[in-house]
Amino acid sequence: MKTEKLYFGAAYYSEYLPYDRVEKDMEMMEKAGMNVIRIAESTWSTLEPQEGVYDFTHIDRMLNAAACHHISVIVGTPTYAVPTWLVKKYPDILAITQNGRERYGHRQNMDITNPDYLSHAERVIRVLMEHVKDVPHVIGYQLDNETKSYGTAGPRVQAMFVDYLKEKFPDIDEFNHEFGLDYWSNRVNDWEDFPDVRGTINQSLAAEFYKFQRSLVTKFLSWQADIVREYKRDDQFITQNFDFDWTTHSVGYQSQVDQYDAARCMTVAGADIYHPSNEELTGAEITVCGNISRSLKKDNYLILETEAQGLTPWLPYPGQLRLQAYSHIANGSNSVMYWHWHSIHNAIESYWKGVLSHDFSENETYREAVVIGNEWKKIGSHLKNLKKENKIAIMLDNASLTGFTQFPLENAGANGYNTVMRWFSDALYRLNIEYDMISSKERDFSSYECLIVPALYSAPESLLLALDSYVRNGGHLITTFRSGFSDEYLKIYPDMQPHILHECLGLHYDQFTHPHHVDIVPVQSDVMAAAQKHFSHPDDSAFSLTSSACEWMELITCDTAVPVLKYSHPAYERYAAAAKNQYGNGSTLYFGTMFENDELLESVLLSFLHETGFSGGDLSSDAPHYPLIIKRGINDSGKELCYYLNYSKDPVSVTHHGKNGVELISETAIVCGNKIDLGGWGVAVVEM
């Protein structure tokens, strides 16, 4: 979705303030060049303190003050945190999960299929929409907040799941066969006998239930969107703040939501991205999660939450907040909004700090936000609505993510799928090869020169045949261990592995294990040559591309494929660790394991992309490498933008190789061949 400006702001809740300072906050926001706030999505109990009694005091105060200070507003539907009176009246609103009935206290504890919850949620949405729909500076609506199914698995949800299975499998014998339920006498001979799925030891059935739970989220958000659409103006958008797989930060594709399906009811995708800061800041999370967001609607997206100060260990170094903000925009976002404006004084997120600290005074983070906001007031019209035309894409698959959760890797555990995906996405990021994300539901990949398919554990034959056809017709495929292993129900294919793809890949395997003290070494000289061209070392005599296998080791036999890497171990040295193959008009690269040496992975990728004639990035020996990150795109005026982002505390110089142009921030003319100096955590944007 195109926007008329870049949006810069924060989530704001006057309900949380220890005293009334709305006017002062809006003054400080306007001074900082902030032009948007997000309100209301977590304040149902304030908006409706008693059933049917509505209080718009806080909403009106925020709306009125925002109007006076030229600040737009995004209104969230307040449905993800239920009020006490509602739970008292309908105790079964609280979800029954794997751990039993939820208790009141934390947010997102309800059953999103409960009819009493839905009835009251609809009523509060309609009352809120009726109140704000004609406010001119309300620019859009956020549906709920980081919505999931919250593990709901009570009797009604279980009955809905059985109805879902009946529709998919009219023949109960076919259902039993597909899911392998004869094992351990788990067979269901009558739908009326269907057991509580929470107790299943059958990963196929468990995975199907997780898929069903994801569909509940899609239906719930679509239901909300339909209500909001009845009231919204044509100039207002509908979005949702999707979050991502989470460890200590946002790390990858979300397992609990089918974001591609759920986003269909929205006009613009939104995202919450939380990433490492200070010494651990790389920008990789901004890129991978932003690329997922951009792929949901194949369009620009909104950052609805990201960190300002964040949790105590996350306090950014001076310069990093600005670098991060430009990185979001360089990736295709049309906004940067912080969680949240000020640090709150009670409850669980007291130490999840906003732009302002608990004393509300100007601080280093605020002063840096002033710099960002005022730069964007000057040059934002050049930066908004950035379009990208990437030549390489990474495929995402919810079913395989679930499969890796059910059958985890030894070291990566439940995050294994995203670990494999990030292995590739981060390598491309470091090499300054920009990439798209695509859904595994797609079948036409012809717009991409190269397609990376990490860990496609669960795949219907239609997808495997589409990949085979893509390569045969001239595409270049990179894929990994545990791909083409099981069908869409996690039933392992009973023939040569990888199923269907073994011909395209030119290899097969029939054994695999976890590596213990197994080294990986290059077989082909072009991998070493790529490494020596791209990675400088003070002592070349000590330069080595040997690495250790760290996850899931397949013992690959090459049929028509050529080994690229091999195992350096007496028990496994006759097997390939990675191999490439020519097939039809295209080619493939297959990794049978993961390993720890980033330079080895990057060298193998560079060597393969060189051979394919890849045109989607600079593969030359002097190409910039992380921590200098370069991002490109086309702006609203049809001009190319080139972002130079220094993810290092040390100053760097970079040679501009594009057309002549202007560095927008400094208003300096740039000629091809000029050196651009970037300070630590520095940014430059050249328009050509």
TrEMBL record:
Domain Beta-galactosidase trimerisation: 392-610
The keyword Hydrolase appears for this protein: yes
Database matches in SUPFAM superfamilies: (Trans)glycosidases, Class I glutamine amidotransferase-like
Lineage: superkingdom: Bacteria
Keywords recorded for this protein, A-Z: Glycosidase, Hydrolase, Metal-binding, Zinc
Catalytic activity as recorded in UniProt: Hydrolysis of terminal non-reducing beta-D-galactose residues in beta-D-galactosides
Enzyme class, first EC level, given as a word: hydrolase
Hydrolase keyword on record: yes
Biological processes per GO annotation: carbohydrate metabolic process
Boundaries of every Glycoside hydrolase family 42 N-terminal domain copy: 12-378
GO terms for cellular component: beta-galactosidase complex
Enzyme Commission identifier(s): 3.2.1.23
Pfam families: Glyco_hydro_42, Glyco_hydro_42M
UniProt-recorded Gene Ontology molecular function terms: beta-galactosidase activity; metal ion binding
Family of the protein in this entry: Belongs to the glycosyl hydrolase 42 family.
Name this protein carries in UniProt: beta-galactosidase
Species this protein is from: Roseburia intestinalis L1-82
Lineage, uppermost ranks: Bacteria, Bacillati, Bacillota, Clostridia, Lachnospirales
